[in-house]
Amino acid sequence: MNVKSVLLAVLIPFAAYAQGFAGLGTATQDFATPQRPAEFDFPADHGPHPDYRIEWWYLTANLKDEDGTDYGLQWTLFRTALAAGEVDGWTSPQLWMGHAAVTTPDAHYVTERLARGGIGQAGVQADPFEAWIDDWQLAGPDFDNLRMTATAPDFAYDMQLTAQGPLVFHGDAGYSVKSAQGQASYYYSQPFYGIEGMLSLPGGDIPVTGQAWLDREWSSQPLSEDQTGWDWFSLSLGEGKLMGFRLRQTGGSHYTAATWIAPDGTTTPYPDGAFQADPLTVTDVGGRDVPTGWAVRLPDRGVEVEVQAINPQSWMSTSIPYWEGPVTISGSHQGRGYLEMTGYD
Amino acid sequence: MTRAGLAALLSHWRRNPLQLFTLVVGLSLATALWSGVQAVNAEARASYDAAAETLGEGQFAQITSPTGSIDQSTYIALRRAGWQVSPVAEGRLEGIRLIGLDPLTAPGGLGPVDLSDGELTVNVLLSGVLFATQATLDRLPPLDVATQASTEVAPDVILTDVGTAQRLLGLEGQLSRLIVAPVQPKTQPPLADIAPDLTSRPPQAGSDVARLTDSFHLNLTAFGLLSFAVGIFIVHGAIGLAFEQRRPVIRTLRALGFPLRRLVALIAVELLALSIIAGAIGVGLGYLVAAALLPDVAATLSGLYGASVSGTLQLRPEWWLSGLAIAVGGTGLAASASLYRLSKMPLLASARPRAWAMQAGQGRLWQGVAALALLVLAAALAWGADGLVAGFGMLAALLIGAALALPLILDRVLAFGASRARSVMGEWFWADTRQQLPGLSLALMALLLAMAANVGVSTMVSSFRLTFTGFLDQRLASEFYVYADDAEQATALRAYLEPRVDRILPIQNATQDIRGVPSEIFGPTPDATYHDNWQFLQSAPDAWARIEAGEGTAINEQLARRADIAIGDAVIIAGQPFDVLGIYGDYGNPIGQALITEATFEALYPDITPLRFGVRMDPQGVTPLSIALRDDFGLAEANMINQAGIKAFSLDVFDRTFTVTGALNVLTLAVAGFAILMSLLTLATMRLPQLAPVWAQGLTRARLGRIEVIRAVLLALLTAALALPLGLALAWTLLAVVNVEAFGWRLPMFLFPLDYLRLAVFAVVAAVLAALWPARRLARTRPADLLKVFSNER
């Protein structure tokens, strides 16, 4: 295991369990922990919270080109802190990692960037909003109008995002509980971005348009020690949007939570058990058994859908690998969405 | 049955402990020299690997600044423009190279340092940890940074985080260079748009230390192989003898119904066990040889190639396994013919105690043909082929061909001697020597090879030294050399020196690649010192005058050979084309060099201020001036060096370079001496039936003993006489073929008759010493034993 994977083990909270925090322990005494009730202060809270151990700006998009071909896109900036607080210069305890990916029905392009805090190579500022690592950026005059770019050896993209609805807050007004033991994070989303721009793939440039979903989350210990991975869904179902996740626990039990988002942004949180997701199709992804087809149900909303990966081989071959890709939805509702699964490597 | 057979076979060794000793010692010595050389090579390679991994040099492109310093904001600007570069802050801490990398962005992480421990990683990033070998850490003064010993880091290097390096070196906000990751994003702006003053340098495959030093290691390997070959001669002899002497045992065993197949298997197993034991002893001895040689090899490699090699030896599986393998393989090779003959032996073959001794005399025709073919091949290679492998191929063909020819030539010479003999005694002496030849020929071949190697290598080294000393006198013409720490001190220093000395010759240089070869560009002041003293190996007419007029450049021989540049070709220096007008010898320098005149240099490199100066003055005044500089001017002692000091240093590097070859040479000669001793000892017991009649006819035992010694002297002298031309051919190959490839320069060959005479005396003394013991034994043989020959009671 090299230094990068150690840092990534720290960096990716959902990988942290599998890697046992690589000797860092799970103690959080120096870090701040989310408190109820959640109180947000915008635009400041779009910026980083260095007193918390982990934080991310996580954008996924379902796109189509002129021919109607489906594409998926990911732009993520992770922040992790080796210690609470920020210091200028190389001794900054803040580390940053960027993941970018483009998924087509038959290809999946992935790249990754790493940076130290304190020297200007990566960071986030709240107003005017800018999140960057190297030449990648998610920036605009405000959070509602953003330009998003990323480059890689084999692909690049340049996208424009425009918010068409309000921010939504998960769990208890943004206080999102992650386990029966009470681990929690601050969690809000902007699920209403319209997106358009250009994908540069090995075959050439492709103009695309679609819908994007941005997740903002920060915490210091989001997972319980008995949780082995998670399956996260963001689904656009026509008459509403559904965010649901299932945390897998040792012994085969699950902890689930979900948020129903009405077209006007009104949210309904659902406690453990209301949201159900069960694997339907298991795909061999580079020798691993990964469920790429799911039965997803939220009986309270009459949701009983089948979720299928557009490209089942959407494996994120980053230093700490996971699965992330666009999905199609059929059944009681139709639509597109995104699926993220960790802990299958 | 197997047990009984084995006991019968092994009883042979119990009755002939000397033979067992010869076999084991011969094999051990051969393996020792081989594995010793391999250990040295393995250690050096491991150091290169560590260096390559530590420094990332060679494998990655680099971005550098002419000032040697890159602002950290430029680094961030490059990252934010999409350039996948990683920062390096480096400098010297108490003379030790300190390298700071960013483990997150460096293509190779923190080099070879294992950061799989999360807590260690956090410490590295937040508070700083210095990684180096324990020996390097021991030289550090107490610092406020944690240290951790790591055997993977290159010697004399400290690795740490870039932030820690900046702090320790006082380089806050400054970087020394940037490593360019091999894979870059799809689109990125040109370097000139972001940082116009920085330059990108492609990966330095040509300067790769491992490649540069390959030829040196090939040299060592060739020596190891030569020693091993000499050792295998001994083993072959011992095994062959043991087989012949065991024929009665084998015959009896088979007559008793012991299956042939099992017998062959038993002997093979026996030999395997013996070779593993001898191989293990040899590897142990090899470790001692390597440990003794390594400091000198390390000094050579750093002096000659600038490669840092650890001076302490580690037990690496690659060499001790190869040592064991070659011991087993060599034994197998030496025994294969004997095993084959055993498997074809008729059931009731007679015991032929002297068959072994005579067997080498058979197949004389084939031996002659093979020798001739090899010598022709050597001549063809010398004439037609070039390159290091061809050079060594030629050496191998020459040496083996000559060794095969040796018994034939000696036989002819002895036959000639016999034809000229006037007395009965003389005739018997020549004839008896001649009939002993087959039994001694393997040992004599070993002596021939060892002596030829000695002549060849000592001729090469002495020629080299003579040329090198003359070269130092030419090149170090200034009586005194001074160094300033910075530009300000340089100005003051010049002003101080001006009224006190004859002339001041600034030495200024820049580094760049010329046709892919890392080179230094020098801009000397036009001065008689240079044209009077520097001799060109090749030059265009009026070379110095034209160089001083700025019309061209002179380059060193290494550069000319490596980049295949001839007089009249153009090379690019700082973007300008220059005609090559002269090529000069530059012995002992690992990299290329080009000279342009001072004015041109200043125009091309306006930012470079000379900090070093050669001072021409009355040699008597050097000591007073250096005292004045220290006491009046305040120049550090380390910044002054007189001509004698540099010469001594250069000669020291030179001498250590060849300590290794010298040591291997002596060891090879010792192995050959051992071979002669053992051959004579084994022959002595077998010769009793031949000597008994001579004794019975009135020759005293003491006289017989003296004749034995004279015979040894005669054979040694004859072998030495043949070794001389062979050695000179070897020297020529080393100087004209191997050195050119290994070091990049060709040297004139000088002859050293006194050295050769001394060697011949050594060989004779070795032969006398080897013959003395068997001769004494003969002189003290009880008459009863000699009489037994006639009563057939042997």
UniProtKB/TrEMBL annotation, chain A:
Pfam families: CrtC, Lipocalin_9. This is Hydroxyneurosporene synthase (CrtC). PANTHER family: BLL1000 PROTEIN (PTHR38591:SF1), HYDROLASE (PTHR38591). InterPro entries: AttH-like_dom_sf, AttH_dom. It comes from the Bacteria. Transmembrane segments: none annotated. Residues 54-220 form the AttH domain. Keywords: Signal. Coiled coil: none annotated.
UniProtKB/TrEMBL annotation, chain B:
Its main location: membrane. It holds the Pfam family MacB_PCD. The keyword Transmembrane applies. GO terms for cellular component: plasma membrane. The chain crosses the membrane at residues 220-243, 263-294, 319-342, 363-383, 389-416, 437-457, 666-688, 709-736, 756-773. It is a multi-pass membrane protein. Residues 442-596 form the MacB-like periplasmic core domain. It is found in: Cell membrane. This is Outer membrane-specific lipoprotein transporter subunit LolC. Residues 222-346, 664-782 form the ABC3 transporter permease C-terminal domain. PANTHER family: BLL1001 PROTEIN (PTHR30287:SF2), MEMBRANE COMPONENT OF PREDICTED ABC SUPERFAMILY METABOLITE UPTAKE TRANSPORTER (PTHR30287). Keywords: Cell membrane, Lipoprotein, Membrane, Transmembrane, Transmembrane helix.
